[in-house]
Fold Acetoin utilization protein AcuC.
Amino acid sequence: MNGRLVGVPGPACDDGRMADDTVVVWDEALLAYDMGDHPLDPVRVELTMALARELGVLDRPGVRLVKPEPADDALLTRVHEPAYLDAVRAAPRDPLFAGFGLGTSDNPVFDGMHESSALIAGATVAAAEAVWRGDARRAVNVAGGLHHAMPARAAGFCVYNDPAVAIARLLDLGAERIAYVDVDVHHGDGVQEIFYHDPRVLTVSLHETPLALFPGTGFPDETGGPGAEGTAVNVPLPPGVGDAGWQRAFHAVVPSVLRAYRPQLLVTQCGADGHRSDPLADLHLSVDGQRATYRALRALADELCDGRWVATGGGGYALVEVVPRAWTHLLAIATGEPIDPATLTPPGWRELAARRRPGHDVPLRMTDDVDPDYQPWQPSGEPNAVDRAVAATRKAVFPLLGLDPHDPRD
């Protein structure tokens, strides 16, 4: 598709207004990204879309479901090496294949690996294009968010890095300032690595400390390469942090750096694996806290980007208990009014979840009954572990963006 002139996106409406719609990119074929007996089970995406549908989120006015097309090699090689694409295609045909991060316990080889990975990348590209063209103000691909994939290596359950491919496409269409905010419990290392030297992309990641969790990167002093200083922002949080600490850290860093950067469009990776029930990490967030984070992201997109927001899923391994509720909240916030946390999950969805994953606790309501309120960060007093993390990030990156690391107004 052809882009418009360099600058802000062009509106789709004849009277110059951007269409105030939300595109949800969806096709059941996205469930084919299936590594078998593996934590990243596509049932979490299936149950998310089923829950959103039963709660009427997908039937709201202005919501359009768009069927994606696979990203072609020209798109994928904006981020990935051609030899890596060849390896992804070849691996399922070779039972002894090894290399490029494939064939490991994290990234097992599976049939149709290239095709399903390319479709997820194409879905996130479709979301980004819809927002950039002005066809919609917001767009969501809950099957996306595979943020660990590197240019020539699979990593962390991720084969192709769909957020990075979509961001590269936006740059090709003329975008000059893209902000990427990653709230997965794991550092968004692949996206950071790909754009570390590109001042047109700001990457922001809140995550559990790399001292305790994969991938071992995402320290505060990772602030961007030469010529792009200040365009990588990392907030590593200690194990055990709950909603109040997470929200305190988020609001102490993310709004300030986004306001300083002035992005044209916000891309977010909304992994749900920071939840207290997630089996692969050690943060203690609730669904209510995740919902609050999504609301904050939408508010920042509204404030800074005229609402232009592209949201993806990401990690999340409490397949029934957490992910479907968290991402249904995400879809509701992207498409209009948030869902009341006290809302009951529909009986039909509970039956489907019990049938698809027997033995799992199926939640009765869209809440964990947690108040995600927090106390705003202040640079005074005896700092706790969260405040030390915040201070380290602000000290490392705020001066590079013209901000005062000690001023809570910045």
Summary: The radius of gyration is 20 Å.
